[in-house]
C-alpha cells in the first residue's frame, strides 16, 4: 500500500482550512484517511499559528514509507522535520514566445527608425555642404 502525507480540505466556501493526513494514494482528497497528523489554517495572520503538526507521528509515518506532498514537505521543512531541496527553474524569468516576438518586432522597428534618421541627417549635411545656387538677377 502506497502512502502519502497530504492535505485534506475541511473549510467552508472561501474559508480554507486543511487537515494534514496520511492516506492511501488511491483515496480521494477529502475522503478516507488513516490518521490526522496536523492542520493548516491559511486564513490566520500569524505565521507561527497557521501550521500545527504532530512531529512524532509524522516521523513514524515517514519511517514506514509515507511520502509527503510538496506543500506538506514545505511545512515539514519549516518545522525542521524533513529537508526540502530548493527547486531550480532556469527558464522562469524568460518571456514567452509571443513576448519574444513582440520584442524582436520592436527592436526591428527601432533599428529602421534609426536608419531613416541617419539617412535624413546625411542628406541634410550634404545639402549644407553643397554651394548655394545664386538666384538670377532681376533686371
TrEMBL record:
Fetch the InterPro entries from UniProt.
Answer: Ribosomal_bS16, Ribosomal_bS16_dom_sf
The yes or no answer to whether the keyword Ribonucleoprotein is present is yes
Q: Which GO terms describe its biological process?
A: translation
The organism's place on the tree of life at top rank: Bacteria
According to its UniProt record, what is one Pfam family this protein matches?
A: Ribosomal_S16
Keyword set, alphabetical order: Ribonucleoprotein, Ribosomal protein
Cellular component (GO) terms are: cytoplasm; small ribosomal subunit
Q: Does the keyword Calcium apply?
A: no
Look up the coiled coil feature and give its residue ranges: none
The Swiss-Prot or TrEMBL record annotates one GO molecular function as: structural constituent of ribosome
Q: Which family does it belong to?
A: Belongs to the bacterial ribosomal protein bS16 family.
Instruction: Name it.
Output: Small ribosomal subunit protein bS16
- Organism per entry: Pseudochrobactrum saccharolyticum
Q: According to the entry, what is the taxonomic lineage of the organism?
A: Bacteria, Pseudomonadati, Pseudomonadota, Alphaproteobacteria, Hyphomicrobiales
Amino acid at each position: 500500500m502506497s502512502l502519502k502525507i497530504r492535505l485534506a480540505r475541511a473549510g467552508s466556501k472561501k474559508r480554507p482550512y486543511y487537515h494534514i493526513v496520511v492516506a492511501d494514494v488511491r483515496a480521494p482528497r477529502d475522503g478516507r484517511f488513516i490518521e490526522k497528523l496536523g492542520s493548516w489554517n491559511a486564513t490566520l495572520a500569524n505565521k507561527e499559528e497557521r501550521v500545527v503538526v504532530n512531529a512524532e507521528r509524522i516521523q513514524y509515518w515517514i519511517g514506514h514509507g509515507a511520502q509527503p506532498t510538496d506543500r506538506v514537505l514545505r511545512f515539514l521543512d519549516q518545522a525542521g522535520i524533513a529537508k526540502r531541496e530548493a527547486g531550480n527553474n532556469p527558464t522562469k524569468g524568460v518571456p514567452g514566445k509571443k513576448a519574444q516576438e513582440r520584442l524582436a518586432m520592436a527592436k526591428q522597428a527601432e533599428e529602421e527608425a534609426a536608419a531613416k534618421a541617419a539617412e535624413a541627417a546625411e542628406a541634410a549635411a550634404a545639402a549644407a555642404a553643397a554651394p548655394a545656387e545664386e538666384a538670377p538677377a532681376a533686371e
